[in-house]
Amino acid sequence: MSQQPYGLVLSGGGAKGAFEMGVWKALRESDYSLGAVIGTSVGALNAAMIAQDDYEIAMEFWSNLTINQVLDLNKEMTNTYVDKWSKESFDVFRTGFLAALFSDGLDISPLRHNLTRMICEDTIRRSTIRFGLVTVDITSLKPRQLMIEDIPNGQLIDYLLASAALPIFQKLEIDGKTYLDGGFFDNVPINFMLEQHFNQIISVEFPAPGMRKWVRDKQAKIITVNNSEYLGGVLDFDSRQIELNIQLGYLDALKVFGLVDGRYFYLNTKKSNTFFRKFINTLGQPLSNQKQLQKMLALLCLSPDAGKNDVLRTLENLLQKTSFRNQPLSLAMLEITGKSVGVPRLENYSIDFFIQAILKELNRLLDENLNLLDNPKIIGTFFTPANSSLLRYNFITFYLVFLSIRGDLSPERMSTFLSKFSPDIALSMITVFYIHEVINH
Length: 441
Hints:
By secondary structure, this protein is of the alpha/beta class. It has helices at residues 18-28, 42-52, 55-63, 75-83, 90-102, 109-118, 121-126, 156-163, 190-195, 239-256, 274-282, 290-299, 308-319, 329-341, 351-368, 376-382, 395-404, 411-418, 423-440, and strands at residues 6-10, 34-40, 130-137, 142-147, 172-174, 177-181, 200-205, 221-226, 266-268, 348-350.
């Protein structure tokens, strides 16, 4: 990887900005070197913390962030509710609440207090990582794109708040000029970073209100980190959501940076991979359990004398009918199975630990569903032609029924039974067989 430093661009998006902290965590574990960081709105706040390079303070802030650390929802509003609104209809309450809330704008003095506590302006000015932000001067109707050297001494906190000044907040003034959230000009300031002569850029982007400028330099190398799951609302300062957003940013960035593999999960295949290598080598070979081998070949519509190449070719054909098509077969089969049995997604797994997690979840499901086959109606539905009720059954139902059927079923009944298996269920079934083969031999 080139040692030329990258420019990091951080989008605005309120509470979604926790995702950017996770990306920073991944960057600290990667070989990427940062030469500058520029942000809009909450991205500017995060950019300042990254330029300051105090990871512990930044994570402490985000991990304990609540709405009260951003906004002052004052006692007057609470008293008004108790004395008046609670005794009126909901419409009266809603009208009065909104009027009180937005008459002068929301008070963000708690956010100013927290930034003053966390941010050291002198440290940022001395940092080897150059810092920049975007805001809008609505007095002159002009955008302001400022690097740290453009911000007057002692006014960094003011300009950070100016970059994040949503219209619902109290008016933000600096030297007689009123400022508005930088997202009203450019929520993803890649062009500003290009103007700082960085043509290698890491851009962190997620859905959020704001303008998005076209990137002017089509030759620039831009690595984009997007969120793979919903991040909540702009003002959703729920502690659990913030924790998930940080973890998601970390994992999604690891994948973009090539530090983990997988389409759905986050899997490190380079370390602790003894079982995985055995799984790759064993896949397609005859199973030592003859009953399971017979059932597997029937599930794949293969003859009893089918060889390894026949099995692998059929597995590849099945894979192309899933959302994991064109992925490496062994890894894709494990991911499909992990998804089928409900392995938690948002973790950084070594591949062997992931295999063990599949078995753990499978055993949990077996314990919870041991009495499933006591109901003859369930088994009967598998042998009824064109029965659509199977759509409600999960993997463990198919697994238990599959293990329980006799090997001497008539071809017609076996064909009816096997036709109910989707490609994902079939691949998961076979994956479990081969995992047991690897673990037990």
